[in-house]
Amino acid sequence: MVGEVNKIILNTLISRGGIWLPDVGSLQLKRYPATMQGKHILIPPHISVDFSSQRTASSLVDVIAEVASIDVVAAEDIYRRWLNKCHSGVELTIEGVGVLKNKSFIPCKEFISALNCIYGSSIKLRRGVHRVRTAVIIAAVIAIIIGVGFVVLPTDKSDESRVETPMHVVENIPAPEVVESIAAEETNEDVEADDIFVEEIEQVTDTEVKDEYRHYVVYGSYSTMDNAQRAISALASSTDTSECEIIELGRLYAVVLYANSEKSECERFIRDNKSQFPDAWVHSPRRR
């Protein structure tokens, strides 16, 4: 009986936002805005339970009568028996909700966590934001000064002599054997390029073969590769698993029973094996 009344209080607080305990007081949910703790810690908005000696919500007796479909007299009797068992001295313990002591209510951590599941924990703000902005501004100013310097400073006349240097290089024609070695290197590069081209053709061919099957009959999807392999091992006791394979399906690993380029063939496979694989389905990946 005590546990049932405790659940009624908890559910009423969540659904209606408050409840009044006759001869005791009212429990009310209250939302608190985000606040700053010191200069660098942000406390997010949160919900807590406040106590008031005034009646601010529905009576627990009425709620018990409504939930149990009984009259108010019987509900009053249940409430009084519950209060006698849960009230000890100056404390009233409501399991799963909290403890009322000296007109101060201390909610359970689990209950508060459930109420504030959509809010995060406190946030520590990063220091030195102004320093970063100052560093960025200084770097931008330095970059502008360097750019202006390149534009304003005159061009060095010695650059003209540097332009004429290739004329001397033309006079030093390399020996024939050097030309032959260069030609040999170019031939080797052509051979290597041909090999790379052949490898690329082979890779494209492999991709086309893999894309031949665009529809798969999936037996089940698993979170790890080991689980998928164990599923195939379990199937081996009742069916031929020689054509089974494992494909990646997003973050899951799917066990494939049958694959075909035609979706209708996969659907036919499911119809023919409905009794053996009642949960099998067709997966058709999108073409890239």
List the helices and strands and how they pair.
Layout: H1 2-16, E1 18-21, E2 25-32, E3 35-37, E4 41-43, E5 46-52, H2 60-68, H3 72-86, E6 87-88, E7 91-94, E8 98-101, E9 104-107, H4 109-115, E10 123-124, H5 129-152, H6 159-164, H7 166-171, H8 176-210, E11 215-222, H9 225-235, E12 245-249, E13 252-260, H10 263-272, E14 281-283
Antiparallel strand pairs: 1-2, 2-5, 3-4, 4-10, 6-7, 7-8, 8-9, 11-13, 11-14, 12-13
Helix pairs in contact: 1-2, 2-3
Give a brief outline of the structure:
This protein is of the alpha+beta class and 288 residues long. The protein contains 10 helices and 14 strands. The two termini are 62 Å apart.
Overview of this protein structure:
This protein has 288 residues and is an alpha+beta fold. Among the domains are: 123 residues, Irregular (HU Protein, Chain A), CATH 4.10.520; 69 residues, Alpha-Beta Plaits (2-Layer Sandwich). Helix content is 48%, strand content 23%. It contains ten helices and 14 strands. Strand 3 and strand 4 form a beta hairpin. It is flat, with a radius of gyration of 39 Å. About 20% of the residues have low confidence.
